[in-house]
Amino acid sequence: MGHRLRHLACSSGSSGTRLAFDHNYINESLAVKIFNPGMMLIVRNRVRNSIDMCKKGLFLYNHAMHNPFVLGFYGNTQSGKTTLLEHLVRDLTAAGWRVAVIKQSDKKMSVDITGKDTARFLQAGAQVVVFTSVVETVYLVNKNSSTQDILKNLEQLGEFNVIFIEGARDETIPKIRLGDCAERENTLFTYDGDYARLLTKIKYELLNKE
Question: Taking a C-beta distance cutoff of 8 angstroms, is the pair 168, 72 a contact?
């Protein structure tokens, strides 16, 4: 029985995600062509669950393609920004959302390590240095970039449902404040520590964003 259910699958192409059915096993009314009536209800439920998963994938794919939700977080050092975002990324990813994170700093610093090959290339004058290994790829651009430029570049790297910005300053980006630092433009509210409520709000925005 299990091998027959595997003929229900999701696939994606240039026109987006689509549902694919093998009609040798499943007809348009979701009635599986088997001869054991006692198994019919179980199979129907499994098929419906598979279709629901595919439909969710279709929604997430199209939503990410056309309208990512961008949300900033800011606060003083040790206010908990990174820890909060780490939890949000983990929970949203586990729920099927595609997440990207931008880390912004107002300090003169680099993630590159002095003396390493990539740092030497940048110091020699390279405009862009790319480091790639079997586990990750890192692009090092030898200039400061605006938030809007970074968001445009992210469009070339993949489709995301939500983009979080730690340390957000751009006035056009909605933000959540942590702690009692000076309030920035376009601040929605100050985080009160209620993580469950914040996660619910973000999921609601993702599901209802046009």
Answer: yes
- Cα–Cα distance list, 64 to 25, 95, 145, 210 (Å): 32, 14, 23, 11
> Residue 148 belongs to what H/E stretch?
helix 147-155
DSSP conformational letter for 30? -
Q: Does domain 68-208 have CATH number 3.40.50.150?
A: no
Which pTM value belongs to this model?
0.67
**Both structure tokens of 111:** 């993630």
pLDDT at 27: 41
User: How far apart are the C-alpha atoms of 145 and 139, rounded to whole Å?
Assistant: 13
Total residue length of the chain: 210
For the ranges 20-24, 146-150, 191-195, which has the lowest average pLDDT? 20-24
pLDDT digits (tens, 9 = 90+) for 141-181: 988 899 999 999 998 888 999 999 999 999 999 999 999 99
Residues near 136 by beta carbon (within 8 Å), at least 6 away in sequence: none
- Measured CA to CA, the distance from residue 188 to residue 191 in angstroms comes to 9
